[in-house]
Amino acid sequence: MMDTRTQQVIDTSRLVRATNGAANGTNSHRRIRISILRFDPRKPGDVPRMQTYELEDADGMTLFIALNEIRDKQDPSLQFDFVCRAGICGSCAMLIDGRPGLACRTLTKNLGAEITLAPLPYFELIGDLSVNTGKWMRAMSERLQTWVHAGEREIDLARIEQRMDPDLAEKIYELDRCIECGCCVAACGTARMREDFVGAVGLAKIARFRLDPRDARSDADYYELVGDDDGVFGCMSLLACHDVCPKNLPLATQIAFVRRAMVRQGFA
Asked: Distance between CA 47 and CA 39 in Å, rounded?
């Protein structure tokens, strides 16, 4: 049997743990309700509807974890996308309480007890929270020719790679961090009005290749790609793209650089 002193030590340690949990704002026993816009366009007769699921919150729970728990324990028909679970692939982008974001990087403790989820607008809907961003991104990349144009008919694979200033390489890498999640396009006012608008993701790619000394294209070539209202001149500078980018890319600055360059080219 434990003596009185030992029992007091155990009770004190429990009290400390409970106090620390309250101080840290632990939500392990909070119940949350997640309302999801459900619709499968491939199912005959299906109509858009909101469906609500209730589950217990937990420390460190993300929306990705919550959605998996719903699909595993409550509704196996729920559709949503994920690959990396680390904010790198961009697959789990969706509207979270009306704002584009990544489910795997959104902690439920930072949201209210009532959460609303919907698929990203603008993109082709696959079902529920799943959209086909890849189809749009591929078409945009082909349209803007987002690859290095070396200006050589034959590529010498044995040649030593061209040297690059480290500061310039860092600027190029910064723009290469785009994960093509589609959040910037979903938040864009121009994209809602212009179906062929290339979006901030497309303009950032142009900015990236303009910086690359290995690319032989000139501003005249880029002007043919984005020098119109479906390109950089269609941007209304609302900067929602900049606000919602999960990788915090300098989209506002880069779009401004591209617009300035295209204006000069237009008067050339």
From this structure: 6
Domain that holds residue 87: 31-131
* 245-261 tens-digit pLDDT: 999 999 999 999 999 99
Beta bridge partners of 101: 94
Beta bridge partners of 31: 56
What is the C-alpha to C-alpha distance for residues 163 and 214, in angstroms, rounded to an integer? 10
Let me know if residue 25 belongs to a domain: no
pTM across the whole model = 0.84
CB hemisphere CA count around 76 (13 angstroms):
1
158, part of any domain: no
Residue 18's Cβ-count burial label (10 Å; 0-12, 13-18, 19+) is exposed
Give me the phi and psi of 94, to 5 degrees please: -165, 170
Cα 256 to Cα 262: distance, rounded to the nearest angstrom: 10
